Amino acid sequence: MSVLLRSIIGLVISAAATLAGAQQYPTHNVYMLVPFAAGGPTDTVARVVAQAMAKPLGQTVVVDNRPSAGGILAPEAVKNAKPDGYTILIHHIGMATVSTLYRQLRFNPLTDFEYIGLINEVPMTIVARPNFPAKDLKEFLAYIKANKDKVSYANAGIGAASHLCGMLFMSAIQTDFLTVPYKGTGPAMNDLLGGQVDFMCDQTTSTTSQIKSGKIKVYGLTSAKRVASLPDVPTLEEQGLKGANVGIWHGLYAPKGTPKPVIDKLVSAMQAALADPEVNKRFTELGAVTFPKDKQNPAALQAHLKAEIDKWAPLIKKAGQYAD
Ligand code: ASP
Asked: What angle do CA 140, 144, 146 make, to 5 degrees?
């Protein structure tokens, strides 16, 4: 048998094995990588979705936190994972902002992934340590401006939603302040509760229960409208502060080259999860809104990601904030 014939037979056998594997998928645990620390808002959304996807997939979906400042390690790990559907990524708006924020990024959000679909949208809140000396946004802004060399702002590193929100906020109030990066706003929230940092901007996913129990102070929402779970919290805009609005969205990704039958199964499992009333009840409690069914698919996520990259790139360039 010629070398050529042998290699063709080898290729055919391996393609047949991949197809058979894709059709039987999944036969064991699926790992959902989260770019930030456990206990934070991205982790919370991941756990709700992972648990709900386990039933339609017939396998456990294990939430695997790979925290790093800016959330850049998890996408890189997923890019380099075997494209077999057993390693997937949940990420937020950071997937769209990192390509502008980082001059050297070891993954390309637009070419290194297969898309599964859009999950939900969630606003952010400007919150402060419990004893912060300001009762409303007006006093808060006055205090920050007067003490800009003393106050500290927690974020989850360059590329995090909290970084983007802080960047917009600084620009909107024309004041720079010290930022303290964490590997997620879960640990940042612990320091805020303990008074080690002064304030931060974090998704309602994490802040709602702390606000409701009076453990932190809140000065406004980064959305156009109030959210049902926090009816007494005004938006920044209704208090006269424009230019700091940002909506966080989550999507699911797989490594490039993951077979189509596998992606199809992940899409239907995600859609089944997002149709679950318990999932929607939990999202509503957290201030999040599930994307409509026609956005819960690969084409919609791909288009949204591209549109968000195009939307944020000029704003980030204008703010001149980069990481190497
Ligand atoms: N809220 C974080 C961020 O700023 C991420 C997290 O810890 O979930 O992107």
From this structure: 115
Which ligand 1 atom is the nearest neighbour of the CA of 164?
Answer: 4
Count of C-beta atoms within a 10 Å radius of residue 167: 23
Token output for 274: 């997002």
Q: Which amino acid is at 121?
A: E
Q: 140-153 pLDDT, tens per residue? A: 999 999 999 999 99
Greatest extent of the chain over all pairs of C-alpha atoms, in Å: 83
Q: Is the pTM of this model over 0.85?
A: yes
How far apart CA 86 and CA 61 sit, in angstroms, is 9
What is the C-alpha separation between 187 and 181, in angstroms, rounded?
A: 10
Same domain, 169 and 278: no
- Any atom of ligand 1 within 6 Å of the Cβ of 160: yes
Q: What is the CATH number of the domain that holds 275?
A: 3.40.190.150
Query: Would you say 125 and 220 are in contact if contact means Cβ atoms under 8 Å apart?
Result: yes
Give the residue carrying structure tokens 């991949």: 18
Residue 206 CA, closest ligand 1 atom number: 1
Q: Which two tokens stand for residue 18?
A: 């991949």
Predicted local distance difference test score (pLDDT) of residue 315: 86
87 touches ligand 1 (CB under 6 Å) = no
Asked whether the CA dihedral 317, 321, 323, 324 is positive or negative, the reply is positive
> Is the pLDDT assigned to residue 17 strictly greater than 70?
no
| pLDDT at residue 241 greater than cutoff 70 | yes
pLDDT in tens, 174-188: 999 899 999 999 999
Same domain, 59 and 27: yes
**324 lies in a domain?**
no
